[in-house]
Amino acid sequence: MSVAEKAIVYATLILADDNVDITADKLQAITKAAGVTVEPIYFSLFAKAFAGRDVNELLLNVGSAAAAAPAAGGAAAAGGAAPAEEKKEEAADEEESDDDMGF
User: Fold this and answer.
1) Element (H or E) spanning 55, and its range?
2) In whole angstroms, what is the distance from residue 16 CA to residue 85 CA?
3) How far apart are CA 12 and CA 27, in angstroms?
4) 36, exposed or middle or buried, with CB in 10 Å at 0-12, 13-18, 19+?
5) Taking the model in full, what pTM does it have?
6) How many Cβ atoms sit within 10 Å of the Cβ of residue 26?
7) Cβ-contact 33, 14 below 8 angstroms
8) Are 46 and 12 in contact (CB under 8 A)?
9) Would you say the C-alpha torsion 25, 26, 31, 32 has a positive or negative sign?
10) pLDDT in tens, 31-87
């Protein structure tokens, strides 16, 4: 990550920490005060990305979605083992029925 990218991220976090709306002008003012040159496109991208969003809430909920995914995947894997066992039992039943018919 370049210095300019870090600067725009830190500027976003500074504004979010102070509960200030994240706008392109405010991001530009912070990075200019820090003496970092950032391409103008980043200001509008970050301002649009975080418009109307609570950055603090986003940061606090980062782990909650990731923790739920492996738990669901583990349950699916455990559930996937049972049908395989049933298929084996069905195959054994079919062989027995073939023996009953004399094949």
Assistant:
1) helix 55-60
2) 53
3) 7
4) middle
5) 0.57
6) 18
7) no
8) yes
9) positive
10) 999 999 999 999 999 999 888 888 888 888 877 765 555 555 555 555 555 555 565
